[in-house]
Write a structure and sequence with these properties.
The protein has 248 residues and is α/β, with parallel strands linked by helices. The protein has ten helices and six strands. α8 links the parallel β5 and β6. α5 packs across α6.
Amino acid sequence: MTTRLVLVHGTRVSGAAWRLPAYLEVLADFDIVTPDLPGHGARLGERFTTEAAVAVIAEAVEGGDPSDPVVLVGHSLGGYMAMAYAARHPTRLAGLVLIGASAVPRGPGAAAYRAFASLIPRLGAQRLARLSNRAMVRLTDAETARAVLDDGESYAATADAWAAVMADGDPRLLRDITCPVLLVSGQWDQLRVHARRFAAQCRDARVVVVPRATHLLPLSHPQVVAALLRDFAHEVGGGTDSGHSATT
């Protein structure tokens, strides 16, 4: 029996974000699946909706041996969509990990995201991509940025993706999920502000905060995140937990 890890990426990247060496090495004992969400990676041009994203995740979850435990992991946009999948299949997963996806997407913060999305058609995807890519390099490194970023094509999906999160992202989605839930975020992640509210909706939840990390935690601290995923997957999948390696 091999635990299946379905790793779902965030906005503006693709499944390549989970194919960095740290993840492939540390998680080598697992069956790793890294799907592209609609509008990203191999699915560029597909319209992003919550239902379309959930269908992609469902295909990845169900693609292996049905007797193998599945741990679903999502970062940012991928975390909100993973939550939406889990709410529709509350008993299917052995574990759920939400990274940088524990803020209720309402209020002034959501308005800022909508305002940014409205700039994309006016300023152009490539121009915004260049600015975003430079910021990514500063927060991670040039090699990582080259491995995970495109030239701006996925910006076309941003408005629809963020609209889906704002419409459907709700901690109450976690109420009926029977598996353990791990809520992970960086210390300086703007999308962790309601982590306790999300945890309170779960039957079995724990919150992990990685010191001095931002919302780009999976890209800036891949070894830390990979170790957290390994330990959690061993624990919920029936293996031996070797201990979390971040501040809880």
